[in-house]
Amino acid sequence: MLTRTLTISALLSVAAAQINLSASCTKALTTIATNADANACLTPSPLLPILTDSSASVVDPINNWLTSLCAAPSCSNDTIAAIVTNATTGCATDLAAIGYTAESTPAVSALIQQYYPTVRNVVCLKDGNTNCVTQTLTNIQGVLGPLSIQNVLALVAADTNVTLPANISCTNCLKAAYNAVNTEIPGLFTTDTVQNECGASFTDGATPAGISETASTKTAASQTKDSGALMLGVSSATLLMIISSAFAVFA
Ligand SMILES: *[C@@H]1O[C@H](CO)[C@@H](O)[C@H](O)[C@H]1NC(C)=O
Ligand SMILES: *[C@@H]1O[C@H](CO)[C@@H](O)[C@H](O)[C@H]1NC(C)=O
Ligand SMILES: *[C@@H]1O[C@H](CO)[C@@H](O)[C@H](O)[C@H]1NC(C)=O
Ligand SMILES: *[C@@H]1O[C@H](CO)[C@@H](O)[C@H](O)[C@H]1NC(C)=O
Ligand SMILES: *[C@@H]1O[C@H](CO)[C@@H](O)[C@H](O)[C@H]1NC(C)=O
């Protein structure tokens, strides 16, 4: 256990140095990454390869991660609040640089608690046996090349406008994701824009053929002892990347 924690800590330090995180922020992320409750519901260990090789595609690690995440129970609101409190407290100076102040923490925690079930349902959609995020990222790789951290950062830095063809942005998977988000957060997408890209049937609310919802409906009970390890910083960043790539399709 100690060895494992040290390894995680070493990996986190390397990752943290690359994006210039403070020591207290790295420490807070390590604490979260080794917290039993956070691990039980976020199951981040399949993402570790992303930390060790920034030139490899993230699609396989993400696929492996979602397979374990969707089978695992969901995080309780208490676990979410503890993660947000620990991260925002430990990373206070880092977050101050982007204008974040501690007063925002309760509101941020409530927002994450509110949208977490929808996000979890969306990232656990499957088309047949293929996870929808995996399918979508694989399609995007067909256009942009391998989605490695290096390549994605280069794309972001270049501020490239990527237009995805309709056979990538209007799949059954993304229609199901659109349905789920539109039900929970009405008005997030402009229907006209979506219909222009994908046709009127995309917004009819019907569940497309072959799509299933695979998220476990159990909620994680609180545990007492710490288990092995992981990397919440990367898992939430990656989650954000997945969600924004899915949503960017409609932007
Ligand atoms: C890293 O953070 C330190 C302290 O905030 C700052 O002085 C330094 O310029 C930063 N380096 C980079 C590469 O952003
Ligand atoms: C939050 O931090 C406390 C104090 O360091 C720690 O005991 C607890 O395990 C952490 N919880 C999470 C979810 O990170
Ligand atoms: C979790 O918190 C959110 C917002 O704070 C609330 O809407 C939701 O009902 C809570 N879920 C449970 C299971 O208590
Ligand atoms: C989308 O269409 C293009 C051009 O017809 C084709 O080369 C590509 O394989 C298609 N992609 C998918 C995911 O169907
Ligand atoms: C990308 O698209 C936005 C909105 O259409 C436009 O304002 C911006 O200049 C474009 N950027 C590039 C690099 O083409």
From TrEMBL:
Superkingdom as given in the UniProt entry: Eukaryota
Coiled coil: none
Signal peptide positions (record): 1-17
Residue spans crossing the bilayer: 228-250
Entry annotated with the keyword Membrane: yes
Swiss-Prot/TrEMBL keywords: Membrane, Signal, Transmembrane, Transmembrane helix
Protein's UniProt name: Secreted protein
Organism: Sphagnurus paluster
Lineage start: Eukaryota, Fungi, Dikarya, Basidiomycota, Agaricomycotina
